């Protein structure tokens, strides 16, 4: 029953894959300001311990905090080292929230739009997990970074523009950041997923079991539909219902996973003929910060994260 977590950070199209390519990007700033409109206490901050491996569950109550004021994530307000520490903190929060949500530790944590081989991101191995692999097709926003407590448990079985595939146990998981140029075009999206599925089959690994990530899809049913068409199997959205209630939010729901909570771009779709979903959950874009000595939350990306526990 492997558990997966995926979240994209918001990076630009720079050939430099360092932290600066992800620091307070436009849609991140938009996300923070959108969430800060309401000053209710909504964000749940879990206890963490930097001296321990990030996968170790830390017991204790969550702290309920409000969003930092609008403008907190404005460009040039935080140096790259400070922004990196926010991402590191988010990684540790991810592990703690996943454990509480799914009842077990995270097997594989994948970041979109992050190049884990870049030296500036090397500290993520202490906060997200050892580096299983990294994939990039040239731009910071086209990168993936894969982390795990046990790196030998996972095998990267393919990658190209907009995707990376990993075999964990007997599950073939494909993590995507579908290029905008094809994301909303049915025929192009079908060709995108068909090519991935064929490549996995031809390499002897079998078909796609799970797709997770930033689909940039035109509607919530778009990705399961094109995947079903592309593979000849039936794919379904692992998350049912129209309201999204992230595991790190309290009495606050969202209509989407993007910067304005209006579009369900970030999702998990599964092959109903090969795997079963035990549980799926979402994670918000925010992470704990200290503002003049007060604990608050700040968005460090425009993409919600996804947790999932599956069996095959």
Supply database-style keywords.
single chain, 312 residues, alpha+beta, Deoxyribonuclease I, Chain A, six-stranded mixed beta sheet, 16 strands, 22% helix, 29% strand
Give a nutshell description of this structure:
The chain is of the alpha+beta class.
Walk me through what this model shows.
With 312 residues, the protein is of the alpha+beta class. It has a single domain, classed as 4-Layer Sandwich (Deoxyribonuclease I, Chain A), CATH 3.60.10. It is built from 6 helices and 16 strands. The strands form 4 sheets. A 6-stranded mixed β-sheet has the order 5-6-4-1-16-13. A hairpin with a 2-residue loop joins β8 and β9. α5 crosses α6. The radius of gyration is 18 Å and the shape is globular. It starts with a strand and ends with a strand.
Write the layout of secondary structure elements.
Layout: E1 3-8, H1 26-35, E2 43-45, E3 63-65, H2 80-102, E4 108-112, H3 124-127, E5 130-135, E6 144-148, E7 154-160, E8 163-168, E9 171-177, H4 180-183, H5 186-202, E10 210-214, H6 222-231, E11 235-237, E12 266-271, E13 276-283, E14 286-291, E15 294-299, E16 305-311
Parallel strand pairs: 1-4, 9-10
Antiparallel strand pairs: 1-16, 2-3, 4-6, 5-6, 7-8, 8-9, 10-12, 11-12, 13-16, 14-15
């Amino acid at each position: 029953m492997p558990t997966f977590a995926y979240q994209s950070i918001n990076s630009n199209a720079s050939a430099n894959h360092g932290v600066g390519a992800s620091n307070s990007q436009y849609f991140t700033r938009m996300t923070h300001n959108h969430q800060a409109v309401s000053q209710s206490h909504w964000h749940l901050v879990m206890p963490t311990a930097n001296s321990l491996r990030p996968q170790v569950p830390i017991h204790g109550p969550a702290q309920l905090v409000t969003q930092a004021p609008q403008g907190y994530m404005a460009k040039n307000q935080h140096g790259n080292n400070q922004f990196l520490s926010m991402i590191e903190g988010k990684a540790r929060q991810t592990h703690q929230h996943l454990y509480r949500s799914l009842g077990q530790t995270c097997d594989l944590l994948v970041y979109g739009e992050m190049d884990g081989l870049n030296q500036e991101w090397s500290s993520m191995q202490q906060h997200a997990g050892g580096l299983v692999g990294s994939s990039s097709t040239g731009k910071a926003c086209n990168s993936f970074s894969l982390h795990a407590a046990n790196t030998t448990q996972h095998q990267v079985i393919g990658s190209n523009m907009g995707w990376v595939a990993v075999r964990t146990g007997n599950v073939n998981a494909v993590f995507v950041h579908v290029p905008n140029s094809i994301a909303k075009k049915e025929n192009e999206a079908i060709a995108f997923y068909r090519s991935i599925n064929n490549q996995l089959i031809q390499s002897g690994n079998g078909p796609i079991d799970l797709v997770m990530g930033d689909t940039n899809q035109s509607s919530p049913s778009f990705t399961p539909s094109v995947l079903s068409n592309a593979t000849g199997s039936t794919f379904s959205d692992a998350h049912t219902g129209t309201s999204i209630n992230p595991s790190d939010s309290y009495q606050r729901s969202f209509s989407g996973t993007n910067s304005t909570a209006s579009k369900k771009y970030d999702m998990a779709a599964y092959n109903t003929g090969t795997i079963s979903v035990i549980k799926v959950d979402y994670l918000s874009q925010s992470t704990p910060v200290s503002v003049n000595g007060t604990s608050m939350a700040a968005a460090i990306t425009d993409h919600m994260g996804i947790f999932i526990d599956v069996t095959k």
